[in-house]
Each structure stands twice: as C-alpha cells, then as structure tokens.
Amino acid sequence: MIKSCAKINIFLKITGRVVVESVKYHTLYSRFMLVKNLFDCLEIQESKVGFEILGDFDCPMEKNTIYKVYEVVLPLLNQERQEFLSHQKIEVEKKIPSGAGLGGGSSNAAAFLLWINEVLELRWSFEKLNEIAQKVGSDVPFFVSQYEVADVSGRGEKIFKSREKALEVEIVTPKIHCDTTKVYQTYAKDFYEPTQENWLEFSNAKILGQSPYENNDLLNSAIKLYPSLKEYAQQGYFLSGSGSSFWKVKE
Predict the structure, then answer these.
(1) Residue 228, preceding bond cis, omega within 30 degrees?
(2) Can you give the pLDDT at residue 122?
C-alpha cells in the first residue's frame, strides 16, 4: 500500500501571469504543507488486461492525473519497461475529497510517479521528476519533492524546503466541489491584483495573524462562485488552494 497524503496551502498569493507553450498560467507564492493524517491509499499490481485505474473518481480515466503520468512517462521507457508499465492495475481508495483544495489528484500522480522511478530502477533526479510532474499538474512537483513544508513559486515548479515547521491543523471541508479553473478565471476577471510583497519571507506566526481574505488571493473568487463558503471565512480559518476546504491551527 502506498500512502498519498493531502496538502494545505498555509497561504496563496498571486504574483502575475505567464504563457507557457501557448497556455496561460498564474504565478504564485505559496507555502505548502503535507497533511499526514489525511491520505488516499494506492495498491498497484499486475494487470492481465492492460493499464487500469480503479477507484471512486469524478472524471474519465483519460483525465485522471495517474493516467497523465502514465502518458508522459511511457515514451521515455525502453520496450521492456513499457510492457511492464502498460500491464499495471492501480486501485485507489479515496479519502481526500475532490474539489476541496487538498491536492488529492496531484498527490496520487506524484505517488505513482515516485513508484515508477523506484520499481523500474530509473534513478531519475528530482529535476527530471519535476519536469515530468509539471506536465501533469501545477501541484504535482510539491508532492514529488516529499518535503513536509515547502515554499513554492512560479507555476508551482520552484520548490524549496521551508524553514518553517509543520502546523497541527484541523480541516473543515464543506460539501462543495470547487472548480479550480473557474476559480482562477473569476479571479483573473474580477479580482486580479498581484501581490507586491514576498510572502515567502513571512513566518507562519505572521501569516496566522492575517485575515483569511489577505491570506489567500482566491478566496473572493471562490466565494463569488460558491457564496455559501463565506460563512466559513472567519478569523483563524484559511482557505486551502482554490477551495473548498478551510483549515485552522489546533488549539
């Protein structure tokens, strides 16, 4: 069994926009933290029918982040390793809610990529793994790094181990599925105001003194799309990613 942990964003600040291969992305400063007591479980074993992904997903297999890793990695392998990888069955027991800003899909993708690197004895460097991870999703590089707390910038590909320690947190996840693309689009249309401060220099203690609206630039756009989120945006509660989960430090 492979554990695939959730994450929270201790803060998330938009710094600008960039175009990569004709695709527009927002750039950011963020501090990611693994949530070790909330995780999906992956079981990987040989398949007799080809490549399979089983689990309670809200998307077709071709859109699944695990499948995206498979698509990117397969052409990089020799024939023997391709044959091995194309006959694997991945069963995922989902505990991390989707559309909640907790990175479940990205974590699954990273766990599978790290498994491939180990089982096939590829010995790929972090730089190589990061390059692959970026093609799958913006949060995947953080999970590939395996840092407990990381300061992240760019599109999510610039990752440094944070000097800040992990927090003990409680997570509240409303029964709302936030569409990440729509949250970012609404931010770009109605709330775009890149930060001028380098939040990566801030301590967690300073960040915890901010309001939830200052802490995460996506909160206003998430609330505009999903108004019932507003009741959760109280002092001491912070939105993770593009929502819908909020977290607070345990008392």
Answers:
(1) no
(2) 98
